[in-house]
Write a structure and sequence with these properties.
Elements: H1 3-7, H2 13-22, H3 32-42, H4 48-56, H5 59-69, H6 83-90, H7 92-107, H8 116-139, H9 146-155, H10 158-166, H11 168-181, H12 185-193, H13 197-207, H14 212-220, H15 229-249, H16 265-268, H17 273-298
Helix pairs in contact: 3-4, 3-7, 4-6, 5-6, 7-9, 8-9, 8-15, 8-17, 10-11, 10-13, 11-12, 13-14, 14-15
The protein binds fe (ii) ion (2 copies).
Length: 300
Amino acid sequence: MNYAGATGIQPGTKERVAHIVENVDRLPALPAIVLQLMRVVNCSKSSVVDAAKLIAVDPVLTSKVIRLANSSFYGIPRTVSSLPDAIVILGFNTIRSLVLGLSVAKMFHGNHSLNMDRFWKHSIITAIAAKIIARHLRKNVMMIDPESAFSAGILHDLGKLIFSQYVTADYIRVCGYADRSCSSILEAEDELLGINHTEVGKTLAVKWALPPDLGSVLMYHHRPQEAAEEASFLVNVIHLADIIAHTLECNLFDGEVCELMDRDCLAELKMDKDEYDKLLHNVENSIEKSQEFLSTIMIS
Ligand SMILES: [Fe+2]
Ligand SMILES: [Fe+2]
């Protein structure tokens, strides 16, 4: 049996994937509202009113932002009915990740080889874990904004959506091959598609002009030691959050494979094994809340 027959991958797939990535201009562009909102969120002079003006133009987005602020995920003891109040409660970075997540979910609708419910659940568990890690690290000397960590967690696997939507049948085979050969999804993508989801994610980050730290997360979350110094801390946080999410998902989904943690990751974050175990436990206790976040994002 030839190689294509053994893996089930169609001849010419690597060339097709390379063509898709080289022609990023044909990939969907981010909607104007997302670009404007990113500018607002990144500008220190921006106010809640600036963000509210932008979001209010879109009634679906407005209702989702208010619904999320009222969800048990944020546990606010009173009813939030106005958009500005909801923005204050959620914070600029959560608004950015929510709007980005919603836009991406809308752009990549249609046929997928990945189960979208499971994909977003993994993204949200990673985001929750990243936020909990960032809060924990604040108690030590190192500082990282928990909401930025949450945003990065939501978006870290964006590159997979390109494979899932544009080479749908072959990506099912890539996932099957990873399972059968006990290799990581990254190795299977490299071997069968000639490129992996972190490289595709980085291409999207450049095309969409995402902030550089987010681009580094998309590119290096499986190889944190390769990230540039200035992004290394956030990348290590997302790497650890991703490992925690996969570990916990082994109890949630059939066929889930635990990923290997980079051997320097805990040391980079100045954490020991006991602290890691505690974090794992804390994230596990927060997973229930992810369902409400997921339904807010997915239901129109
Ligand atoms: Fe990944
Ligand atoms: Fe992941």
